[in-house]
Amino acid sequence: MNVLMLGWEFPPNISGGLGTACEGIVKGLSAYNDIHVLFVVPKSFGTENTPNFKLIDAEKVAKTGKVIFAEHLSHEFTTIEMPSGLLPYDSPEDFSKLKHFSNEITVSNAEIEQSEITTQIREFHFTGKYGPNLFEEIDNYAMIARLIAENNQFELIHVHDWLTFPAGIAAKQVSDKPLVVHVHSTDFDRSGGKINPSIYSIEKQGFEQADKIITVSDRVKKRLVADYGISAKKITTVYNAISPKSSKDNPKETGKFSDKVVTFLGRITIQKGPEYFMEVAKLVLQRMKNVRFVMAGNGDMMSKMIDLSARYGISNKFHFTGFLKGNEIKEMLDLSDVVIMPSVSEPFGIVPLEAMQAKVPVIISLQSGVSELIRNVIKTDFWDINAMADSIHAIISHNPLSKVLADEGNREVNKLNWKNSAGDIRNIYLSTV
Amino acid sequence: MKSISLNFQIHHPFHFQTFRFLDIGTKKSYYDDLRIEREINEVATNYYLPANEFLLKLINKHKGKLKLAFYISGTAIDQFLMYEPEVLTSFSQLADTGQVEFLGGTSSHSLISLTNHKDELVNQLKDHQSKIAYLFGKKPAVFVNSDLIYSDLIGNDVADSGYRAMITNGSRKALIWRSSNYVYSNFIQPKMHIYFRNEMISDEFTSILNGLNSDVQDIDANNFTSQLKNLNPVEPLLNIYVDYKALGGFGIDKKEKFVQSFVSQISRMPKVDFVLPSEIAEIYGPVAEINASEPICWLNNFHSYYYPGNELQMEAIKQLYMLNEMVANIDDINLQKDWQYLQTSDHIHLMDDQHPAYFNNNISNGIYKSRYDAFINFMNILDDFRIKILEQAKVKEKRTVSSPKKGKIRKQSNPHHLSK
């Protein structure tokens, strides 16, 4: 079966867990000989870490769509790059601030324009004029998807989250093939409840047009039923997994601080509950001296958090690292004695799994999808700062607890693999066509 | 001749409430009093009182034939005294018939027998023994450990504290190929007799009773008694040991009918009788020594290979009993009570999410979201308790240092005071 998969980011150029999840799904599906995936991303940077993928420039899509399909028949996954400034987690307002980013793309697009491309494609290059309108971008992505759909053979379309929904619907209209919508998050999660009506309507349309829906947790499934009026019958939960860590990773680095380190790792946005982490830090530091708190990441609430740590008088024990990527994340995890994810609304949440891989005890909120999947972590409500403070105190104070959480957590996370998740996805494909 | 020994267990722990590390040193109570009271009211009204009533009728009806034994844990007794004292009155009515006997245990259904604090074990056994003697007029002669835990060493320690017999679970781990339907003796002290709970028959008995909810038709005891007939006639003994709650609750009328028909069928059978655990030793001698180097136990619907438990449980037990010597020197009655209630095995069970107690805790408004929560809560309470006994120890130290002076002054100033 040939699957046209529309995503929007791919490691290492990611701003959240979605690119990682897409990579895992595609790699997991590669274990099944009867599934062939043609993967489309809006913009590739040429640095994607894809040994078993082929990156094809967008202009070639227009010229020689069949070539791509031929290549993808050779049992390899094909990634098609499309020039676009789409970013997964940004609101239209944020998008308009991303001028510098657009300029980078302009430079890379200059090369594209030098090569021979059809005028049809060139119209979608938006060179230098992305402007403030994200929705225009999405429409353009949909048109490119329509073009790709016309020029390729496939039996099923699989799209990931709202930015790709119009593209998926367009591809469905052209090809008349079934559409599978994969929901990694909804606008309710990202906005902390203050949803954008335009995004909501794109999401709702995508869910309604979909023949099957895959959600990353039952939590998301319930959301779709309750807030989007979607029938539970066409929704199936497939939990994310995590790629195994190679055993030759550097041994755990410790001893930089004599203090214990409690880490919040993620975007500093309302969705992730950073202010609860701050309150917890304040509580714990009232009673304990041998502990430091680290907020690793960036986001729109970062300056507010820095102000707050100063107001609470804990800035000598509370640290900000800014955005971490790649190996920095691993280093941060190795330095940590506890990782905490107090998310207010987390559709899944991959950070706890990464921490468990690094043998770090984990505390997560019950308002996360991943809490449905894993057992060997401490779970609390996101608002229950007393419970979180208590858990941190206990992990730091009782070595056996910390050891059991690290060991059993590690054992548990090592049992997860993308092949199993992809197997569930494959079953959904087979039941759809 | 075949003798049936019918034993019922009653146990309720002092459930903890959420106790954060921020609560340490704040004098917050450890216990969820509301939940405990509600639970005791519920079991008294719908389980124990009505079941005692129909058993009393049955005993009177069968004049000397029906014999029963109960194990009531120390914590359950304390809770009955606090919230439902008439339960104890009702049990002493059963005791007055002479057909009912009460078994001995540890003072708070504790895991003390898994440690090497033998003095404390002996104290706890004596404490429960005198409590039962006070309430029901007779000192227990047969011992039941918490969760029926048994090993060679435990049997030896129990023998040293004066018991001559104890009941444990007929676990394959210890019996291997042997039958549970004989009396055995302890490997270290052969004069200590060991009775094994017949796992299959006891579980069958419980599951029939649990199946008798209000939706099903009455079940005749025929099938069950015919199973007993199929037992090897050479084997002299049958120990049935079940949770007493199985006799009450939903469908109690049908349960009563079932027990009635069971008892009358047995009493009509030739060469079969009911026997009290304390009588077994007089009738049957041990056939062999039993070797149990590792502990065996009984936990409702759970495996008998349980103890010593997982790493969290072992740590909690270790940390708990590190306080043993310190507590021994404390006179404060409340702290002594806390010390007993902290030892109840249920708190430890909740640190294992495979354990049935964990599941039950969660369906009955339990406070723990994972076994880790159970561990954290326990350790916080233990921290608080440790601080309290350290404070007490300091106070006591001060008193002993300064008291000779005070005593002298008093003696001189008021010589008549002491003689009063």
Short recap of the structure:
The complex is a heterodimer of chains A (433) and B (420). Chain A is α/β, with parallel strands linked by helices and 433 residues long.
Any chance you could write out the topology, listing elements then pairs?
The complex is a heterodimer of chains A (433) and B (420).
Chain A: E1 2-6, H1 17-29, E2 36-41, E3 53-56, H2 58-63, H3 65-73, E4 77-81, H4 92-96, H5 99-114, H6 119-122, H7 134-151, E5 156-160, H8 165-175, E6 179-183, H9 187-191, H10 197-209, E7 212-215, H11 218-228, E8 235-237, E9 260-265, H12 274-287, E10 291-296, H13 302-311, E11 318-322, H14 327-335, E12 338-341, H15 351-357, E13 362-365, H16 370-373, E14 378-380, H17 385-397, H18 399-414, H19 418-432
Parallel strand pairs in A: 1-2, 1-5, 2-4, 3-4, 5-6, 6-7, 7-8, 9-10, 9-12, 10-11, 12-13, 13-14
Chain B: E1 2-10, H1 33-61, E2 68-72, H2 74-83, H3 85-96, E3 100-102, H4 118-136, E4 142-144, H5 152-160, E5 165-169, H6 172-175, E6 183-186, E7 193-197, H7 199-211, H8 222-229, E8 237-243, H9 252-268, E9 272-274, H10 277-283, E10 288-290, H11 311-321, H12 324-328, H13 333-342, H14 345-349, H15 356-363, H16 371-413, H17 415-419
Parallel strand pairs in B: 1-2, 1-8, 1-9, 2-3, 4-5, 5-7, 6-10
Antiparallel strand pairs in B: 6-7
Helix pairs in contact in B: 1-3, 1-9, 2-3, 11-16, 13-16
Secondary structural class of chain B: alpha/beta
Shape of chain B: globular
Tell me which oligomeric state these chains represent. Answer: heterodimer
Largest pleated sheet of chain A: 8 strands, parallel
CATH superfamily of the largest domain in chain A: Glycogen Phosphorylase B
- Biggest interface and residues each: A-B, 22 and 18 residues
User: What number of structural domains do the residues of chain B give?
Assistant: 2
Whole-Å distance between the termini of chain B?
62 Å
For this structure, what is the CATH class of the largest domain in chain B?
A: Alpha Beta
* Helix content range of chain B: 40-55%
Give the strand order, joined by hyphens, for the main sheet of chain A.
Answer: 3-4-2-1-5-6-7-8
What is the fold-level CATH name, i.e. the topology of the largest domain in chain A? Rossmann fold
Low-confidence stretches of chain A: 49-77, 83-90, 98-131
